[in-house]
Amino acid sequence: MSTTGPTTTTGPMSAAAHVEGLRRRYARRHAAARCGVYGAAVLAALVCALPFLWSTVSAFKQNQDLYNPESNPFFYNKPATPDHVTFLFNDTPFLTFVANTLIVGAAVVAITLVLALPAAYSLARLDRPWGTPMGIAIFMVYLVPPSLLFLSLTRVVVWLHLEDTLWSMIVVYPTITVPVSVWLLIGFLKAVPKDVEEQAMVDGYSRLGAFLRAVLPLVFPGIVAVVVFSFTLTASEFVYALAFVSASPEMVVSTGVPTQLIRGDVFFWQSLQASTVITAVPIAFLFNLFLDRFVTGFTMGAVKT
After folding, report:
1. Where does the chain have alpha helices with state H?
2. Which of 154, 225, 260, 280 is the most exposed place for a label (fewest CB within 10 A)?
3. Residue 276: what are its φ and ψ, rounded to 5°?
4. What is the pLDDT of residues 183-209, one digit of tens each?
5. Long-range CB contacts (within 8 A, 24+) of 11-18
C-alpha cells in the first residue's frame, strides 16, 4: 500500500504536467510563427511603401537639400518647406488635370459596364457554339499594343472632330477596357449557378429582370473589380492621351503633369513627387476600401463551371 499509493497519485500529475508542457511549447511555437508572419508582412509593406515615403519626404525638401549627394534622401537635412507643393497647386493647372482624369475615368467606367455586362452575359449564359471563340477573340483585341493603333484611332478622332477634347479619350479608351472586362465578367457570370436565374424566371421575371434582380447582385464583386481595373487603366494611360490632346486645359494627369513640370532640361522634382503622392494615395485608399470585394471578384473569375 505504501508503494502503490505514491505511484497512483504522482502518475496522473506527471501526465498532466507533461501535457501542460507540450501545450506551452506549442503555444510558444505558434506565437513565434505568428510574429514571423507579421514581421515579414510589415517588412514587405515597408519595402513597397519605400518609394512613397521617399516621394513624400522629397516633396518638402529644399533644393539645396535635395541636390546635395551627401544628404540622406530619407531625412530632412535642412528645414522642410511647402513651397513646391504650393507651386503645384497655385502655378500649374494640376487640379484641372485631376478633374479631367476623374471625368474621363467615370465616363469610361460607365461605358465599359454598359457594353461589357450585356456582352459577357450573352457569351456566358446563351449556349451558342460561337460563344467561346468569340470570347477569346474579344480578349485578343486587348493584347494589341496601343502603339499599333493610335495612328488609325487618331484619324477616327479627327473624323469625329473630337481632337483636343476629353471626348476623344472617352470614345477611344473603351476599346482598351471593354475587351478585358468582358473576359473577366464571363468568368464571374459562369461562377453563378443557372438555377438562380431560372428560379427568378419561374417566379415571373423576364430574362432582363432576372439578370438585374438575381444575377447582378451576385456578380457585384466582379463589377467592383472591373470598375477598379477600368479606372486605373484609364488614369495611367499615356500614349492615347498624348496623341489625342495637346491643349493643356483638356489634359489629364498622366500627360499634364509631365508637360507642366518638365520644361526642357529643368525638372521640378519636388512638385513631381508631390503630384505622384497626391494622385496615388486616393487610388490606394479605394483599393483598400474595396479590397475584399476586389479579391473575391478575381477569385470568382478564376472558377470555371
Report:
1. 4-59, 63-66, 83-90, 94-125, 131-142, 150-159, 166-172, 174-190, 194-202, 207-210, 216-218, 220-236, 239-244, 253-261, 269-289, 291-301
2. 280
3. -65, -50
4. 888 878 877 777 777 787 777 777 777
5. none
